[in-house]
């Protein structure tokens, strides 16, 4: 990676916006048409009262929350930006959309439990057992990296992020660095596994990003990326044009166009990895309910966690970009977020989302 913790005082690229009048999306898309069902798993609706009642969702949350502590960091990295009562990172060449305060950290840790459940307890999909040198880019609270370091004590694990929100008490084989994956990477031919998860809307050029990861991997090493689509759909019928989850991706696509940093990442990762030179690229699409509506018990559990992840995350995903890029007023943002939260809480809607797990390999060196 680039030299960690070297803070350039005003290195932040101004990705923010030419103010535009607040506007509802002019051409609502039908997400079902754009993204026809292709997931490997099937979801069936549970029409019973119990299946549709989502009151018990909160009680499902029992995840542990890591408290963050930092030490010996350049003080400018710790001078967070405050916007509208939330704090955001200070370091980096690009501006991340998400806050880094305790509320956001809790949401990330909760999401980690969800993502691990989705993979049946696995931490990644790439077919590599016991990687020895692992890099997690955009590590957030570092919870994935901590689990990997605990699972493979002989491995050396590194997590990098713009925000110093990782805990101080970590496994001895793990270290965290403040670093920016949108800058040049200095590591070459080093890692067995590079992992990224939920970094949509943060990478201006994904092929360039994957090329950097390619160079940083050893021959035979694997890149493993997990991203959700931005398109929620309903198992019953295509969503109506004025549904908040038709508006939501339309607005995010507008933000992507204005900033040059797309949120519509998941369906393109396979193509981008291949363009960057990876081989044996596989794409697994897992369809997961939002809420407890599925018949299947496992799918129901996933749906509950997915609902909780979205319910607690929708404001974090939305507010900075809507305000700074689309020039929306706070009240307008809160109304949209409230509508989206109401939709994810209504199991009768039968909402679901496709989650993409894509991995690819740097070719092995040819033997002479
Ligand atoms: C939604 S969080 C996901 C965290 C973690 N990957 C997970 O799944 O638990 C995205 C993270 O990417 C980080 N990030 C965004 N842009 C970055 C950049 N250019 N370099 C390093 N980290 C970045 C953010 O600070 C944030 O912690």
TrEMBL record:
GO terms for molecular function: methyltransferase activity. InterPro entries: SAM-dependent_MTases_sf. Keywords: Methyltransferase, Transferase. Residues 38-51 have a biased composition (Polar residues). The keyword Mitochondrion does not apply. One of its GO terms (biological process) is methylation. Residues 1-56 are annotated as: Disordered. This is S-adenosyl-L-methionine-dependent methyltransferase. The lineage of its organism: Eukaryota, Fungi, Dikarya, Ascomycota, Pezizomycotina.
């Amino acid at each position: 990676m680039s030299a960690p913790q070297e803070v350039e005082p005003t290195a932040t690229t101004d990705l923010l916006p030419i103010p535009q009048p607040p506007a509802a999306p002019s051409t609502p898309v039908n997400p079902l048409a754009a993204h026809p069902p292709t997931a490997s798993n099937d979801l069936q609706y549970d029409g019973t009262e119990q299946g549709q009642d989502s009151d018990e969702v909160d009680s499902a949350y029992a995840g542990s929350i890591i408290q963050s502590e930092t030490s010996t960091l350049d003080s400018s990295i710790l001078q967070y930006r405050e916007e509208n009562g939330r704090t955001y990172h200070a370091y980096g060449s690009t501006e991340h959309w998400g806050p880094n305060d305790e509320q956001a950290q809790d949401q990330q840790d909760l999401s980690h439990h969800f993502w691990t459940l989705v993979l049946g307890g696995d931490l990644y999909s790439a077919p590599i057992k016991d990687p020895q040198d692992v890099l997690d880019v955009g590590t957030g609270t570092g919870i994935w990296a901590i689990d990997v370091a605990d699972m493979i004590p002989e491995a050396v694990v590194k997590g990098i992020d713009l925000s110093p929100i990782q805990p101080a008490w970590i496994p001895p084989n793990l270290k965290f660095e403040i670093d920016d994956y949108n800058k040049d990477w200095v590591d070459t031919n080093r890692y067995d596994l590079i992992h990224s998860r939920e970094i949509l809307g943060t990478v201006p050029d994904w092929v360039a990003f994957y090329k950097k990861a390619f160079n940083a991997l050893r021959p035979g090493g694997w890149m493993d990326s997990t991203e959700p689509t931005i398109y929620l759909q309903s198992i019953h019928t295509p969503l109506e044009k004025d549904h908040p989850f038709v508006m939501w991706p339309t607005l995010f696509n507008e933000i992507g166009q204005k900033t040059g940093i797309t949120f519509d990442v998941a369906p393109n990762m396979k193509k981008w990895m291949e363009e960057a030179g990876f081989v044996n690229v596989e794409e697994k699409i897992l369809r997961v309910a939002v809420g407890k509506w599925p018949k299947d018990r496992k799918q129901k559990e996933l749906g509950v966690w997915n609902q909780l992840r979205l319910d607690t995350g929708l404001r974090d995903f939305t507010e900075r970009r809507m305000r700074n890029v689309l020039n929306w007023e706070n009240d307008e943002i809160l109304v949209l977020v409230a509508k989206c939260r109401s939709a994810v809480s209504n199991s009768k809607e039968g909402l679901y989302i496709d989650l993409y797990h894509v991995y690819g390999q740097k070719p092995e060196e040819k033997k002479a």
